[in-house]
UniProtKB/TrEMBL annotation:
Coiled coil: none annotated. GO terms for molecular function: acylphosphatase activity. The keyword NAD does not apply. Gene3D superfamilies: 3.30.70.100. PROSITE patterns: ACYLPHOSPHATASE_1, ACYLPHOSPHATASE_2, ACYLPHOSPHATASE_3. This is Acylphosphatase. Keywords: Hydrolase. The lineage of its organism: Bacteria, Bacillati, Bacillota, Bacilli, Bacillales. Residues 3-90 form the Acylphosphatase-like domain. The active site is at 18, 36. InterPro entries: Acylphosphatase, Acylphosphatase-like_dom, Acylphosphatase-like_dom_sf, Acylphosphatase_CS. It catalyses: an acyl phosphate + H2O = a carboxylate + phosphate + H(+).
Length: 90
């Protein structure tokens, strides 16, 4: 299993990006969480098989039609707090 901490910069708040992230995670079987940060970024921690995580992150980089992802910071992480699903947190 691969665990990643991801921060997305750009037009990612107020455009449904967290819901988009949750939907894509559920499609792929990725567990974890996503939230908005006060600095305008979206942050997530996610866990899944390496190939699946690569696909998930590439999908997030592309975003959806209302978002504009300009930069993505990805770092490995040791822990991902989740209950086996992918949730939107506040």
């Amino acid at each position: 299993m691969t665990k990643k901490h991801v921060i997305l910069h750009g037009k990612v708040q107020g455009v449904g990006f967290r819901q988009f992230t949750q939907t894509e995670a559920k499609k792929l079987g990725v567990a974890g969480w996503v939230r908005n940060n006060s600095d305008g970024t979206v942050e997530l921690k996610a866990e899944g098989e390496e190939e699946t995580m690569n696909k998930f992150i590439e999908t997030l980089k592309q975003g959806h039609r209302f978002s504009n992802v300009q930069e993505v910071d990805i770092t490995p992480t040791d822990t991902v707090e989740h209950d086996g699903s992918f949730s939107v947190t506040f």
